[in-house]
Structures are given as structure tokens and as C-alpha cells.
From TrEMBL:
Matching InterPro entries: AA/rel_permease1, APC_superfamily
Organism: Streptacidiphilus jiangxiensis
Pfam families named among the record's database cross-references: AA_permease_2
Region (Disordered): 1-25
Name of the protein: Amino acid transporter
Keyword annotations of the record: Cell membrane, Membrane, Transmembrane, Transmembrane helix
GO molecular-function term, one example from the UniProt record: transmembrane transporter activity
Gene Ontology CC entries for this record: plasma membrane
Annotated localization: Cell membrane
Residue spans of biased composition, Low complexity class: 11-20
Length: 507
């Protein structure tokens, strides 16, 4: 990792902005994030221990022993989309990422809505869930299990976690990266330690290649449902792209980190899933992964019999740490997205404020910390079940902006796809397939979510998850119209101005 910490001789004020067309021209500390730090941020943002704990059981309920196959197939659209992110970042290494890329490809209004609003809303909702989960597990680990089930205690602890991670994120991406190294190491040690112990336990079944057979699904419905569940388990790696203007070799390092982090996630998930299925099986009773009582927290159920009570506490701590580290990454990535939007004239100038010493988007960081706390309290006041449905609705938002970004890649490079087989494949065919798969996932998940029995709430016969997911996207339309009236120049000339700031010749 490349670190450039401030020295006592460094002036308090941020350096002058670079000329348009240079990465890092928004006042961020350029060259301060290397490949290792970017990979750590990407992995941490996915919260691997938490994600596998709460998703593996649900996937197993749908497809049984083919859960590893579902994880593999669910990885395909993620990988295809990752190629789109890499190629677009090579052309336009801007911390606004999806906002800048979709604006360049499709214009200011689609860019503002699908590239700006949708990912910001998805991350904000996720932050409330991560804070609550981290608080609940943390209280349990420190011996306050009774308070872990108390809404007031968990909410208060979650707010403290949001405040603490906001302070760390505000201090700078270097400090955040060092914190992530420690938190990520604990997660990976816990997951691989659990997996190894499960595989060698007496009575564990021998792993089978049949478990990873992508053609073994019995019907299209279970196949689609399991793959949709797996989209959530991989979501978040794109947060590492938002530090591209602070990366060494801004046009190359983030793209490499995207591919490294996604493949590391795949390996970690497949290993953990294989170990869990081998040890517990997919039965519907006892420790079986097909037991609905175990579905929402596989690691908490299996850890005590696999590694013993004492080490099971370490596994629980890993899940708590996983949620907290992902929360921290959200507070690194979201403010950089709004920083770019403000720098391009699409949001109030306050979001473009850079701390004179830490060189971070200080206003945006504090804003999102406060917003996450406010949304958490609001959802808890409405109903604790409402918060659960809000988490489920994130899948729609993920599919929406990932799909839009993948298609933006194809459209942006359309005139250059014939220049080489590489361009045709990596900038055309693969992103197009990824975008279409994401749109199909969006349509299928919306169809499933509209049913009143999907999730925990419903309104007039329509599922609350659907209303929250589609409602979050729809709410962006009137907000965008207000922004259009306040920032007419961006909505008139934004596409051209973004093109003027890219590092290569526009196509």
C-alpha cells in the first residue's frame, strides 16, 4: 500500500486544484491508496462474514446442496459488471464513478438518477442495517446478550457505531484502510478457520463436485430466486472505485482491485459454503441448513458445534466486525460520490468541501453519518419489521444501477468495439451480458416482491419490499426535478462538461 501521511511541514490548506483532466483535481490526497488498500476496502465493503452468515441459509432453503452452485452462478453477472467498471474507470477515473459514467453515456438526467441517486439510496439503507447488525452482535459478544434483543439498546449502540465510523472516515482514507486491514484479517481468519474445522470434523461429508454443478437446478424459479439472493452477497465491491482519485495509477489500480477483490470473495464464499454443507448437510431439522430456524444466521448456529463455545465467540465477533467495517467503507465511498456530483455542479457546493488537513469530503461524510442515524431511528419508530423489508429492497437498487453502468460501458465504447477483439469482448460483449442479466434480475425481483407475502409488511395487497425498492427509485424523480431547477447548467451541459474532464479523448 502506498501511504502519504501528512507531515508537520504540510500546509493546512488543500493544494490548488489540478488542471481539468487530471485525476485528483477535487482536492483529495492523490497517490495515497495502493492496490492492497483498494482490495481491502473492496472486500470490507461487502462484509463477507456478515453476508455469508445471513445469506447461505436462505440460499440453501431454495436449492439445497446446490448452494455453492448458486454462489458461482450469482457471481457471473457480478464479474461481467466488474469488467464494465474496470474499463470505464480506465477512461474516466473520477470518484463519482457510476454518476459520471452514466451521465457521459446517457445524459444528465439518467446519470443523476441511476448513477447518483440510486446507489446513494442503496448504500444509505444498507448503512442502517449494518449499524444495527453490528450493534446486536457486539452486545452479544461482550456478554450483554439480553440487551442485544432490546430495540432501544441496539439502536443506541448502532448510533454510537455510526458516530465512531464517521469520525474515522473523516480523518482520511489512509486511516480507514489501516483499520480495515485489522477488521478484514479477523473476518477471513474466522471464516477459513471455521471452514477448515468443519471439513475435518468427524461425520462431515466428503465435498462433491455435484454441489457446484450450474446445470443441476431443478427448475427456473428456484434457480432465479437463489441467484437473486446471491447478488446481495457480492454487492459493495464497487466502493473501492470511489477512491480512484486517491489511488496510485488511478486509471489502473482500481480496475485491478475490482477483479482481485471479486475473485477473493468468490473463493471465500465457496469454501465456507462447501464446509457448511459438508458438516451440517441440508436437512430440515437440527443443524441442517434446510432448517428454516437456522436460515438467518448460519454461522451463529454452526460455530459452537464446529469450533467450540469459546471460539464461536470469535466467529460472532467476526460478524460484528464485518458489519462495522462495511459501515466504515460506506462512509468512505458515499461522500466521494456526492463530492463528484457537487464538483460537476449537480449538488450544493457544500458537498464539495474538502477538509484542509485530512483532505476528505468532510461535510459529505458528516452528512451521511447523520442521515444514516436519522433513517435508522425513523425505521425503528415505524416498525422493526419495516427495517428488515428495507434491507430486502436493496436488491432492486443494486440490479438497477449495476445494470445501467454495464450498459453505459457498451454505449460509451460503441464506436471503438471494432478496434480489437479485446475491446469487443471486454467493453462490449461481456458488459452487455452483465447489464442484461442485471435488468432480468431487476424484473424478476420486482415481480416476486410485489406479492403481499414477500417480506414482513404489505400495503393494500402490495408487498412492502416492492414499495420500498421501487419507491426509493421513484422518489428520486421529484428530487431530481428539484435539483434540475436549482442546477440548470448541469442538466443542460453536464454531459459535455464531464466529457471535458476525462483523461482521454472522448469517443
Amino acid at each position: 500500500m502506498t501511504l502519504n501521511p501528512p507531515t508537520e511541514h504540510q500546509p493546512a490548506a488543500a493544494p490548488p486544484a489540478a488542471a481539468a483532466g487530471e485525476p485528483g483535481d477535487k482536492g483529495l490526497r492523490s497517490g495515497s491508496v495502493g492496490l492492497l488498500a483498494a482490495v481491502a476496502l473492496g472486500l470490507a465493503s461487502v462484509a463477507p462474514a456478515y453476508s455469508i452468515a445471513v445469506t447461505l441459509g436462505l440460499v440453501t432453503l431454495v436449492v439445497g446442496h446446490l448452494a455453492p452452485a448458486a454462489l458461482l452462478v450469482g457471481f457471473v453477472p457480478i464479474l461481467l459488471t466488474a469488467f464494465a467498471f474496470r474499463e470505464l474507470n480506465r477512461e474516466m477515473p473520477d470518484c463519482g464513478t457510476t454518476f459520471v459514467w452514466t451521465t457521459r453515456a446517457f445524459g444528465p438526467m439518467p446519470g443523476w438518477l441511476t448513477g447518483g441517486w440510486v446507489p446513494q439510496m442503496a448504500t444509505l439503507i444498507a448503512m442502517t442495517a449494518l449499524a444495527q447488525v453490528g450493534a446486536s452482535y457486539l452486545l452479544d459478544v461482550v456478554g450483554l446478550a439480553g440487551l442485544a434483543n432490546n430495540a432501544l439498546a441496539t439502536t443506541a449502540t448502532a448510533l454510537l457505531l455510526i458516530a465512531a465510523t464517521t469520525l474515522v472516515a473523516r480523518r482520511g482514507v489512509q486511516l480507514a484502510a489501516w483499520v480495515q486491514y485489522v477488521l478484514l484479517a479477523l473476518q477471513l481468519l474466522a471464516l477459513f478457520g471455521f471452514g477448515l474445522a468443519a471439513l475435518v470434523r468427524h461425520g462431515a461429508a466428503a465435498p462433491s463436485l455435484a454441489w457446484i454443478n450450474p446445470f443441476g437446478f431443478g427448475d427456473s424459479g428456484s434457480f432465479a430466486e437463489s441467484v437473486l439472493l446471491c447478488l446481495f452477497i457480492y454487492w459493495g465491491w464497487d466502493a473501492l472505485i470511489t477512491v480512484n482519485e486517491e489511488s496510485s495509477d488511478a486509471d489502473k489500480v482500481p480496475g485491478r482491485a475490482v477483479l482481485v477483490s471479486t475473485f477473493l470473495l468468490l473463493g471465500t464464499y465457496l469454501f465456507t459454503a462447501y464446509a457448511a454443507v459438508a458438516f451440517a448437510g441440508t436437512g430440515t431439522s437440527g443443524l441442517g441448513l434446510g432448517n428454516a430456524a437456522n436460515a438467518t444466521d448460519v454461522l451463529a448456529t454452526l460455530a459452537p458445534p464446529v469450533v467450540g463455545t469459546a471460539l464461536a465467540t470469535v466467529v460472532k465477533l467476526a460478524v460484528a466486525v464485518s458489519a462495522i467495517s462495511a459501515l466504515l467503507t460506506c462512509l468512505v465511498s458515499n461522500p466521494r460520490g456526492t463530492l463528484s456530483m457537487a464538483a460537476h455542479g449537480a449538488l450544493p457546493a457544500a458537498f464539495a468541501r474538502i477538509h484542509p488537513r485530512h483532505r476528505t469530503p468532510s461535510f459529505g461524510t458528516v452528512f451521511f453519518g447523520g442521515a444514516a442515524g436519522g433513517v435508522l431511528v425513523l425505521l425503528e419508530l415505524v416498525s422493526s419489521r419495516f427495517l428488515g423489508d428495507a434491507i430486502l429492497s436493496i436488491g432492486l437498487l443494486i440490479a438497477c444501477y449495476y445494470g445501467a453502468t454495464a450498459l453505459a460501458c457498451v454505449w460509451h465504447f460503441r464506436a471503438r468495439l471494432r478496434e480489437s477483439p479485446r475491446d469487443l469482448l471486454l467493453r462490449g460483449v461481456l458488459p452487455a451480458l452483465g447489464g442484461l442479466m442485471m435488468l432480468a434480475a431487476f424484473a424478476r425481483s420486482a415481480y416476486d416482491m410485489v406479492k403481499p407475502d414477500y417480506g414482513s409488511t404489505s400495503f393494500d395487497g402490495v408487498g412492502g419490499v416492492f414499495l420500498l425498492g421501487v419507491g426509493s427509485i421513484a422518489l428520486g424523480v421529484p428530487v431530481m426535478l428539484v435539483a434540475r431547477s436549482r442546477f440548470p447548467r448541469f442538466f443542460r451541459d453536464g454531459r459535455a462538461e464531464i466529457a471535458a474532464q476525462t483523461v482521454t479523448d472522448p469517443s
